[in-house]
Amino acid sequence: MKKVIFIICNILIITYLLACLGLYLGQEKILFLPEKLPENYQFRFQSTWIQDYEEHTLASQDDGKINLLWFKTKKPKGVIVYCHGNAGNLQRWASIIDDLMRFEYDIILWDYRTYGKSLGKLNEKNILADGQLIYEFAKIHFAENQIVVYGRSLGTGVATYLAASNSPSQLLLETPYYNLKDVAGFHFPYFPYSLLLKYALPTNDWLKEVRCPICIFHGTYDRTVPYQSGVKLKPLLKPNDEFVTIEAGDHNDLNTFQLYEEKIKQILGK
Fold it and tell me: Which of 88, 140, 160, 249 could form a Cys-Cys staple with 92, CB 3.0–4.6 A?
């Protein structure tokens, strides 16, 4: 009997260790859900707001290629640098964020490496460096006091890093996380996620360094980036910053709530 128990215990331990190894080696496939596009892909948009746009590909110092779309309004009062979530590519995200243009802002939307037409090695260092490359592109065409940085889900960490490293006019965060370890602990509580996770994206550290106004949106029913993770950022905000709780809001539907609509209009519709 003891031998049987010993064998079962060993099997369970080995299975657990293999699961840990699988999580470590496969974490990019969990964190990132890119959809690639061929280099000659022609973007097409059925949108009330997107009438004019330019496509650019920026070269990074390590030979990466970062693809962006610059959506233009006739008389922009500024530009929104948009850091999107973990799935899809520019074609998908354009249809999600195009209504922000109604406030007379241009939008610069960019793809992380391995997404869409963007190429190069994907890791945290490169994501942040690429974000700064996009921000520098925006600065060529707009003064910093005309730049709004907007982050959604995975992109909230990148957006916060950019706002902390620069001086935009506003930081907007939709469904942000305290840091990626905090989210990993929610989804994989029985694994040593602190040891396994190669990505940190410590929004909590960068948020303290942001000097511009901040507004955070988070829904109480969010099960992708749990509300509890986002609300932990609230004590780190400056006195005039805002944390907007959207009751019953999920991860992908905050823009359907009147409270979100009123607040985003108040900020961008000035």
Answer: 88
**In a 3-state reduction of DSSP, which class is residue 119?**
strand
State the Cα–Cα distance between residues 138 and 162, nearest whole angstrom.
12
CB 172 within 8 A of CB 78: no
For residue 11, give its domain range: 1-31
Q: Do 112 and 24 share a structural domain?
A: no
Q: How confident is the model over 101-146, as pLDDT tens digits?
A: 999 999 999 999 999 999 999 999 999 999 999 999 999 999 999 9
Tally of structural domains, the chain: 2
Same domain flag for 12 and 44: no
Closest of 225, 222, 218, 180 to residue 199, by C-alpha: 180
Closest CA to 92 of 109, 79, 71: 109
